[in-house]
Specification:
Elements: H1 12-28, E1 32-38, E2 52-58, H2 68-73, E3 76-78, E4 87-92, E5 99-105, H3 109-123, H4 125-141, H5 146-171
Parallel strand pairs: 2-5
Antiparallel strand pairs: 1-2, 3-4, 4-5
């Protein structure tokens, strides 16, 4: 059973991200367009589950399947699309997850969605604080129920994502 743990921001998360970037570059090589640190661990001051979310933008999503064994060799489990069409998802650790890798093809709306949310939170500290507080409350309310924790965040995320996408398109023309 995965425990819902939300902790205060850790400066070491960016170091953990950079360590994995080196590994991803070795594995995916020329297939990579860009690699981004996303999710709450990428937002300074944000409370988060201590899981590093990595977004890898690639030229050809189908080719990613050829790297499953190499990802497994460094501790990742290939999960296929895992509920999002056009994605390849890998997780490191089972109940004690440490990293999630989301791979999308260049041009995917999901890349924009993730980057917009991150940048919006960084530039809108009141929204970030509200999200941080929501996550802390939900983690206390559902300490052993990851599904309810995620469902509890969903309305906030959807509403904020709409604002973030509009803001992002205005600021990244």
């Amino acid at each position: 059973m995965r425990k819902v743990e939300v902790v205060s921001f850790n400066e070491g998360w960016s170091v953990m991200f950079e360590e994995e970037v080196r590994k991803m570059n070795t594995i995916f090589g020329n297939e990579i367009v860009a690699i981004y640190h996303i999710g709450s661990t990428s937002i300074p001051g944000m409370y988060a589950k201590p899981i590093i979310d990595i977004l890898v933008e690639v030229k050809d999503i189908e080719s990613v399947d050829h790297y499953n064994e190499q990802m497994s060799a460094i501790g990742y489990r290939a999960m296929g699309e895992h509920g999002i069409s056009g994605r390849r998802f890998f997780c490191k650790g089972e109940d004690e997850r440490t990293h999630h890798v989301h791979v999308f093809k260049t041009g995917s709306e999901h890349i924009t969605r993730h980057l917009a949310f991150k940048e919006y939170m960084i530039t809108h500290p009141k929204e970030a604080k509200a999200y941080s507080e929501l996550k802390q409350r939900l983690a206390k309310q559902f300490p052993t129920d990851m599904k309810s924790y995620i469902e509890g965040k969903d309305p906030f995320i959807k509403e904020t994502e709409k604002k973030a996408l509009e803001w992002y398109s205005d600021h990244n023309v």
